[in-house]
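Hi all, long-time lurker, first post. I run a small reading group and we've been trying to get comfortable going from sequence to structure in the token notation. Rather than ask abstract questions, I figured I'd post a concrete chain and ask someone more experienced to write out its structure so we can walk through it together at our next meeting. Sequence below, copied exactly:
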Amino acid sequence: MRNGASKPDPRHWANDLFVRSARGGACDVVFEYAGPVDRNKLDELVEIAEARSLAVRDGVSIRKRLFNVLVEGLENIHRHTPIEFADSGFALLERRDGHYRVVIGNTLPAASAALLSHRVEVLNDMDEADLRECFLKLLANEGRTERGGAGLGLLTMARKSARPMVVHSTAHDDATVHLALELSLDFA
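-- Answer (accepted) --
Happy to help. Here is the structure in token form:
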């Protein structure tokens, strides 16, 4: 157990990201979690983040952005992880000098991972005005699926975080990929 969330299994695919994080300099790990992400786990992780954010007296602006990014990222894992890879979800939240670092990920089909990586590249190339315009267009889009799927979550994460967003991926097998999205949220 680390800060209220279970410590990742050393055999979990995301453990390498956690280990690299520990070597990445001084930071305060708010939580690290590896396993299924359901509604209860999402709520638990957000509560841990909220308690820490309040304890260190973060401003309202950073708290709102942090919660937006966490909820969107964790909901994406909850909604879009194939059932056979339910245990592959993970989340890491660190508080570092000047920013929060959020890393979220799961295992998904290679084609979905390629599409997601491409979308992140496109979003990274957009300026604030482009992101806002795209967001408003997506809000007006009635073509969303029952599970979401319009891209609003990823777009929200891009708007609320510092860019570039970074995609980490490793092959699980010929058809699936372990994919992680790393974001930074500046305190200012």
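A couple of things your group might point at:
Helices lie at 15-23, 39-55, 60-80, 110-125, 128-140, 152-160.
The chain has one domain: 15-186.
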